[in-house]
Structures are given as structure tokens and as C-alpha cells.
Design brief:
heterodimer; A: alpha+beta; 8 strands; 52% helix; B: alpha+beta; 6-stranded mixed β-sheet
């Protein structure tokens, strides 16, 4: 055995395989543990964050792991003012007080003060909890400055909060946590090799008097269907699954104020959609239109339009389905609305079905609301048909559509897991844990549940959300 | 140290972490090894614990110590006198010749009579918080004002980083 092989075996154990630290780390059964300032091999009784060999290697590199094994522990401190400085700067950049964070996370304000005090040693689990909710990469606490906190995202959220007073502190924290989930989902997909890439060249055409926004949107919707291998008459049975399976696009569901429908978020290079589970989105057909609207933004808006975070209120989206939509909403929103309508229920097919079987059948076939279906039929007739003459007796969504779109939230086996971390995210976490790419302790922390709950339900998570690697 | 020695047992070093044969070479006075004694000790390199990982790796004022049956030998971890070793620095087994010891750790002399003590050693780690406390008490009895790094419950090992 060469010296290099001995070094690899010493750090990753005799069961590990491969010629490189990376290969060895992925096949190692060694367990590490970290605190705020130190990393070491796991010892029984250690209360810190347990890390799989891959997690520890990916975060700290081989030299530090070797130091941890050979010297008993390795110092992982970038500088003495970390992590206090990063946490404080992030909080201030988001326009939040220590009290805001303490309230939202149900911590004492002194715990937040301690985190921002470079003389204190803090429990790693508290540091990680706060980092996640501030949209920071919790793996590198103390080890790196800034923790990949997206400064532009923070600036825009602070703008929303202070200039426009649209967002409360709690909502800002919901969005930064969603940004963290989006980044983790993206990272786990890369790690598991499940990430798919379909190229969409953004379009900066938003229409003019001769070529209105809705017509441009329709072309984009047709192109999207084509790229995704969907025929024009094919209903999209689960928009959430389509986002995940074909676009590898995280869709985070969470409770937001009743006025907000959804948002698109970019956390560094990771992009995703955040959907409010409250308010009108409780109707599955409304929620599908909301997600399709955000998809229109994410796939087709150029970067300058697609800012780090764009929050859509229900009234912005609803105005698109009214006869006054051309006057009522911004052109970027008009295009996203028309995209959503055409993507979900292509106009020509919708009109044809309407003529033969009525508007309710259009709604049931494509899983769209009455207002969206009516808008499509109205456009199909070049807006000559009297909008008020298109009516329906029953506007209720069907159970079938609800089950398909909401099952990830409603049927999640561990009720203590927050809605935002259920579904595909949980499936990725379980899959990564099963492959020992993350530890069970990390999986439990990512899902925000107890170890017992996770152990009792991990197979169910795997069955319900299988990850095809 | 006799009170401490009476409560704990000697053990062989953790061989798994020994990479090079010269890590068990017995260092002596000509390499800078001295026995820990009451202050003032002569020719001490004064310093304080590092403020980062990078500082720790380059610290020129970190001493390592072990408690053996007859003495508490200590040496600067990095000095020109130990640069001939494969690791370019001394390890705890260089203080025992690879033999038995009660425990090992690190120490910085802020002044002649004020020291910072950790129980960090890959070869003879301090095993419990009580053992670390007992060692610090022993250094106190020698006449030092002792600042202990303390015990890390999250890694179940002595702290290796000191926060001021």
C-alpha cells in the first residue's frame, strides 16, 4: 500500500473504495462531528452536527479531515470574528432586528445576540437553524465568510420591506428560508445526478400595438410545450411534477400573507418558485395558474426583468383574467398571465371543447379555473364574444386535480415537517441520506423533524417520492 | 501532577494516527524539550492561542506537553530544532519516544506565569472534562494562572480553539 493509499484509508476507513479523496469519501462509512469552531471524528455522546464523510470532505477538504483524524480535532475557524460577523451583516442587509429573528424562530433574543458576539461559542444546531432561515449555506458556518448569502437577493428583499412596505419581517424570513431550500434542492440534485437542463433563450419581447403581449406569450407557451414533449391537446396532469421531473425546478410551498400568490427567487445560481398555500391558491386550479404564471417568468423573462425576487400578489394575477387586463397589469405580468393560460389550456383546443361540451369540460380537462378558461375562449374568438355570456354553474375544482397537485403536502408521512420541506425536497434528502452523502442527522435537520420520526418514516418518504438516479 | 496521576492511567499512543517512523523519535533537550516547572521557566517563546485555522497551522509559540510518570516534558511544536522531522514539527509521541503517557495537550505562555492550556492531542487525548479540569488544577498548583480551553460537548473532546 502506498503512502497516499494509507492516508486515504486512515481518513475514510478500510471499507472505502477508490483512488481519490472524492471517491473514498462517497464510499466511506466514517462519521464526523462538528461544532461552531471544531471538526473531529464522531465519538459516542457528541452532541454536535454529525456529518457523513462526503459532507465533511465536500465542506472542509481532505487536509482538514486528515487533521481532524490525526490530531483529535481540527480548527475550522476562518477568523475570530466569524461566524458573528456574517450573521450580523446578513441580518442588517435584510433589514431585520435580532428580535425579528428570535420571534420568527421561537428563540430568545439573547441567543441571537450571542450568535452575533464573536466571543461566544454557540450550539451548532442553533447556528444552523438561523443560517437556514437567513438563506445562508449552513455547512460552512465559521469556515467561510458570507456563507454564500446572495447580497442582491437581500438588497431586493430589504427594498420590498422598507421602501414598499409590502413584506413583514416574518415574510422576509419565509422567503430567505425558501431561498435556502431552493439552493439545497439544487445542490442535492447535482449531487445525485438527477438535474436536467433544458435551454430556454429568454425573450425581451413584451408586445406592442400590432403584436400584443398575449400573442407573444402564446408563442412562448407553444414552444415550451414543444421543448417539454407535450402535445397541444395534452393536459398537464401535475404542474409540480412537471417542474421537478422535466425542469429540475424547485417549487417551494409555504404559508405567506393572504395577499401574496407566489414569487420567483434566485439564490445565487439556483432558481425556484415559492407558492403560497394560503388564500386563493387553496383552490388547485388557481394554484396551477399561479405556478404556470411564475414558470412564464422563470423560463422566459430576461435576467434584467427576472430580478432576484419578484413577488406576485393575487390581484396582479387575477387582473390578467379580466377584460380590463391590458390596462390593469404591467406588460411583464400580462405576458406571464397569457403564458400561463396558453400553457395550461391551449386556446384552440379549449375553444373547440367549449363549443362541443361547454366550459366546465374545458376546466376539468385542463385543470384550470373558470376565469382562466373563459379568458382563453374569449381570446379564441378574437374577443368578439360577450364575456358575460360565458358562464358556468359549478366553479369548484375536482378532487382528482387536488389529489395530483397537493398530495406531496397533504399526504406527507411526518406531520411535523414544515410544508416547505415536504415532497420532492424530502425525497432528495432521503435519497442522499441513503447513499450516505449526507448523515441521518443532517437529513433530520433538513426536514426539521425528530430522529425517531425520520427513522420510522424514511421508507415511506422513499416510496412516495422515489428519486430516479 | 501526582494528584492527577493517582486518578488516571497511562496508555499507549493511538497508533492509527502515526504516519512516519520519526514521529516516535525521542526528542531531548537539544531539540528544545524542557520539563514543565513552576514559573519562571527560562527561554520561553511567549504567545497566545491562534485566532484562525491558518494561524494555528503556522503558530510559532505553541508548545505541546505530555504527562508521563516521571515528568511533564514540553517542546515548541514548530521550531528550527525540530524541522528535521518528516512533519517539520514535533508531535506528542516525540516527547515519549512512542511510549506510554497519561495525556497530552497544548499550551501557550502569555507571560511567565499565565498559560492557556488545551487537552488536544491525537495520540494521548484528554479523555473527559474531569480529566482536563484535574490537569489544569495541577498546572495551577505549579504556580500558573491557567486559562483552560475547556471541553467541547459537541465533539465530546477537548476544545482546540479558544474564544477570547
Amino acid at each position: 500500500m502506498t503512502d497516499d493509499e494509507k492516508r486515504l484509508e486512515r481518513v475514510f476507513g478500510i471499507k472505502s473504495q477508490g483512488n481519490t479523496p472524492s471517491e473514498r469519501a462517497k464510499t466511506s462509512d466514517m462519521l464526523f462531528v462538528r461544532s461552531q469552531d471544531e471538526l473531529s471524528l464522531f465519538r459516542e455522546g457528541a452532541k454536535g452536527r454529525q456529518l457523513s464523510a462526503w459532507e465533511a470532505f465536500d465542506t472542509f477538504g481532505f487536509e482538514l479531515l486528515e487533521e481532524a483524524v490525526c490530531e483529535g480535532a481540527a480548527i475550522i475557524v476562518h477568523s475570530e470574528d466569524e461566524p458573528a460577523r456574517t450573521f450580523k451583516e446578513r441580518r442588517i442587509s435584510l433589514g431585520l432586528s435580532t428580535d425579528d429573528i428570535a420571534d420568527a424562530l421561537q428563540l430568545d433574543e439573547t441567543q441571537i445576540d450571542d450568535i452575533e458576539n464573536s466571543h461566544k461559542r454557540n450550539p451548532i444546531r442553533i447556528l444552523e437553524l438561523v443560517a437556514q432561515h437567513l438563506g445562508l449555506d449552513e455547512r460552512k458556518i465559521t469556515f467561510k465568510r458570507d456563507l454564500q448569502g446572495d447580497a442582491d437577493l437581500a438588497l431586493r428583499l430589504k427594498d420590498y420591506k422598507t421602501t414598499y412596505t409590502l413584506l413583514s419581517s416574518k415574510t422576509v424570513l419565509s422567503f430567505t428560508e425558501a431561498a435556502w431550500i431552493i439552493a439545497v434542492e439544487d445542490r442535492l440534485q447535482e449531487l445525485l445526478g438527477t438535474k436536467k437542463k433544458i435551454n430556454f433563450d429568454p425573450s425581451d419581447e413584451y408586445g406592442d400595438a400590432y403584436h400584443p403581449a398575449f400573442k407573444i406569450a402564446y408563442d412562448l407557451a407553444h414552444e415550451t410545450r414543444k421543448k417539454l414533449g407535450l402535445s397541444q391537446d395534452e393536459p398537464i396532469l401535475s404542474l409540480r411534477e412537471l417542474c421537478i421531473d422535466k425542469l429540475s425546478l424547485p417549487v417551494v410551498q409555504c404559508k405567506l400573507p393572504l395577499s401574496i400568490a407566489a414569487a420567483t427567487i434566485a439564490n445565487n445560481k439556483s432558481r425556484g418558485i415559492v407558492v403560497n398555500t394560503d388564500g386563493k391558491n387553496q383552490n388547485v386550479w388557481v394554484q396551477r395558474a399561479t405556478v404556470a404564471h411564475e414558470l412564464g417568468h422563470l423560463l422566459w423573462d430576461p435576467d434584467q426583468k427576472l430580478r432576484k425576487i419578484s413577488v406576485d400578489n393575487y390581484k396582479d394575477i387575477e387582473s390578467g383574467w379580466s377584460i380590463h387586463q391590458e390596462r390593469g397589469s404591467e406588460f411583464v405580468e400580462q405576458r406571464a398571465n397569457a403564458f400561463a393560460a396558453e400553457f395550461l389550456a391551449p386556446m384552440e383546443i379549449a375553444e373547440s371543447i367549449y363549443r362541443k361540451e361547454g366550459i366546465r369540460t374545458v376546466m376539468e380537462k385542463f385543470g384550470v379555473s373558470f376565469f382562466l378558461a373563459r379568458y382563453q375562449i374569449w381570446n379564441a374568438t378574437y374577443r368578439t364574444e360577450n364575456l358575460e355570456s360565458i358562464t358556468v354553474d359549478n366553479t369548484e375544482e375536482t378532487q382528482e386535480w387536488s389529489a395530483r397537485e397537493f398530495y406531496t403536502v397533504d399526504w406527507f408521512p411526518i406531520k411535523s415537517v414544515p410544508i416547505s420541506r415536504r415532497g420532492y425536497f424530502a425525497g432528495l434528502v432521503r435519497s442522499a441520506e441513503k447513499k450516505n452523502l449526507i448523515s441521518k442527522d443532517t437529513a433530520v435537520q433538513y426536514l426539521h423533524c425528530s430522529e425517531d420520526e425520520y427513522s420510522a418514516n424514511k421508507e415511506s418518504i422513499e416510496d412516495i417520492y422515489p428519486i430516479k438516479v | 501532577m501526582d494528584v492527577y496521576r493517582s486518578k488516571y492511567v497511562e496508555r499507549e499512543p493511538n497508533e492509527l494516527v502515526i504516519r512516519n517512523a520519526d514521529e516516535c523519535k525521542q526528542l531531548v533537550a537539544e531539540h528544545g524539550v524542557v520539563n514543565f516547572a513552576s514559573p519562571p521557566m527560562q527561554n520561553i517563546a511567549f504567545g497566545v492561542p491562534p485566532r484562525s485555522h491558518a494561524e494555528n497551522s503556522a503558530s510559532k509559540t505553541k508548545y505541546i506537553w505530555v504527562v508521563t510518570k516521571p515528568a511533564v516534558p514540553t517542546v515548541l511544536e514548530r521550531s528550527p530544532l525540530v524541522e528535521f522531522l518528516s512533519k517539520k514539527r514535533a508531535t506528542h509521541t516525540n516527547l515519549t519516544g512512542g511510549g506510554v503517557a497519561y495525556s497530552g495537550g497544548e499550551v501557550w505562555f502569555e507571560s511567565l506565569d499565565r498559560i492557556y492550556v488545551s487537552g488536544a492531542s491525537g495520540r494521548y487525548p484528554v479523555r473527559t472534562p474531569d480529566e482536563l479540569e484535574e490537569i489544569c488544577k495541577a498546572f495551577c498548583r505549579l504556580g500558573y494562572d491557567v486559562v483552560s480551553f475547556g471541553w467541547n460537548e459537541e465533539t465530546e473532546a477537548p476544545h482546540t480553539f479558544y474564544r477570547r
